[in-house]
Write a structure and sequence with these properties.
Radius of gyration: 16 Å
CATH topology: Arc Repressor Mutant, subunit A
Distance between the termini: 25 Å
Shape: globular
Strand order of the largest sheet: 1-3-2
Oligomer: single chain
Number of helices: 8
Helix content: 40-55%
Length: 173
């Protein structure tokens, strides 16, 4: 199956509209609570960023408490993406198939369509195009403009790598 990144971004924009987000940073934790998602922070093994499962029909997202807060926000947005886009793969499960719903070698290689969609969703949710366009400093920015990148990353509460990727992604053009 092929990833539907535009559909994933559209789903994220629907949440931005639903929650009437007008300025960064996007309140992703508040959104999760309003969506009746239980979010738990705990130290997780290795490079595991997070996971999602259903417990008694309640979605539960686990976030690696050892990761940087900006990474935790991206992981939360990514897992909300799985719930929004791939709930049928999670419904009725107590445990999540870690090969499907966590950041692994397939994600790095860009081959797992579910991970590609969840990443596109998370990127749009945390750094919505509408809010990026509203930033005067983002207009005409150069890839090497570290000062502006740092400022925007802090404003959106994402990593510099994430904002750089979002600003210079071919999908934005």
């Amino acid at each position: 199956m092929r990833a539907d990144k535009s559909g994933a971004r559209a789903a994220a924009r629907e949440l931005i509209t639903q929650f009437a987000v007008k300025t960064p940073p996007v309140p992703v934790e508040r959104m999760a609570r309003a969506m009746k998602i239980r979010v738990q922070y705990a130290p997780l093994d290795g490079d595991l960023s997070g996971m999602v499962a259903m417990q008694d029909d309640v979605p539960v997202i686990g976030i690696n408490a050892l990761h940087h807060p900006n990474r935790q926000r991206f992981t939360l947005a990514h897992e909300i993406g799985h719930l929004t886009l791939h709930r049928d793969l999670i419904e009725g499960s107590v445990h999540v198939d870690k090969q499907i719903l966590h950041r692994d070698i397939m994600t790095e290689a860009g081959t797992d369509w579910r991970e590609i969609e969840a990443n596109a969703f998370a990127s749009e949710l945390l750094m919505p195009e509408s809010l990026l366009q509203a930033q005067p400093s983002a207009a005409g920015i150069a890839f090497e403009d570290d000062e502006v990148i740092t400022s925007l990353a802090a404003k959106f509460r994402v990593s510099e790598a994430a904002i750089r990727f979002r600003l210079f992604s071919p999908a934005r053009r």
